[in-house]
Design goal:
Layout (H helix, E strand, L loop, with lengths): L1 E2 L5 H9 L19 E2 L17 E8 L3 E8 L17 E8 L7 E7 L9 E8 L11 E7 L4 E3 L2 E9 L6 H13 L21 E10 L11 E9 L6 E7 L1
Antiparallel strand pairs: 1-2, 3-4, 4-11, 5-6, 5-12, 6-7, 7-8, 9-10, 10-11, 12-13
């Protein structure tokens, strides 16, 4: 499914916490293809839909002034499965990076959270996994930084912020239905009866938990001009061997 995102007030709040500018997140300068960005659908993973804290809503990747920015949004209340605020304290939230069209990721940034305290804040940790460890769930990786939700943390060439914000994804579902109909019928999109000035954000008022990670351009692999493919995943161990869901940008 092709989705184009506009960065709005909610994401601006998260970016401001790290001092980042609100660049367009749907046209990442480091990706292999510019323009349309294939993304997973909100409702594509039945298991993840059982728990909003594991439910990936959107993935954004773009080049900031000082580094590559990765953003994962989860736990939207628009899905109807929002159980409680915050991040799952037993889950892993991972950004996966492939370089130069490689079939496997060789860089993973893993974010994990502790249980919420009396103030609702959660301790968080960021680990980096490289090489074969990047795709090994049993690997521990290298601890990059520690912090708390709602507060920016930085160390080791990385900056991290996580917390609850207004959903930054903007879409007019009436227009989406026109596009989907044209794709289904193999016809041109008929916009004769639609006026941009009448567009409405169908996600207005919804909330998400957002993880914002910036990795310095001084990183040995994530330098400006690097050709990367990025996807993200939430993972939770179960008696059946595991549960995960993911979304990606090639």
């Amino acid at each position: 499914m092709t989705r184009r995102a506009a960065v709005k007030a909610g994401l601006g709040t998260a970016l401001s916490a790290l001092g980042l500018s609100a660049s367009r997140a749907d046209v990442p300068s480091h990706q292999g293809k510019e323009g349309n960005v294939p993304m997973s659908h909100h409702l594509d993973t039945p298991l993840a839909a059982q728990n909003g804290q594991l439910y990936i809503d959107d993935l954004y990747v773009f080049s900031g002034a000082d580094g590559t920015v990765f953003i994962m949004d989860v736990n939207s209340n628009i899905t109807g499965v929002h159980v409680k605020p915050g991040f799952h304290h037993e889950a892993r939230y991972e950004f996966k990076v492939h370089f130069d069209g490689a079939s496997f990721e060789t860089l993973t940034y893993r974010v994990s959270f502790a249980e919420a305290g009396p103030d609702g804040r959660q301790a968080m940790k960021l680990h980096a996994l490289t090489g074969k460890e990047a795709r090994d769930d049993a690997a521990g990786g290298e601890l990059v930084l520690e912090g708390r939700t709602g507060e920016p943390a930085s160390a080791g060439g990385a900056r991290l912020w996580a917390g609850r914000i207004a959903d930054p994804f903007y879409i007019d579902l009436s227009l989406l239905m026109k596009v989907n109909g044209a794709v289904k019928n193999g016809t041109a999109v008929d916009l004769s009866g639609w006026r941009p000035e009448n567009a409405k954000n169908s996600f207005a008022g919804t909330m998400v938990e957002s993880i914002v990670l910036e990795v310095s351009h001084q990183h040995p692999q994530l330098r400006p001009g690097a050709r990367i493919g990025v996807w993200c995943a939430t993972k939770l161990a179960t008696d059946a061997g595991g549960r995960s869901t993911g979304a990606g940008i090639p």
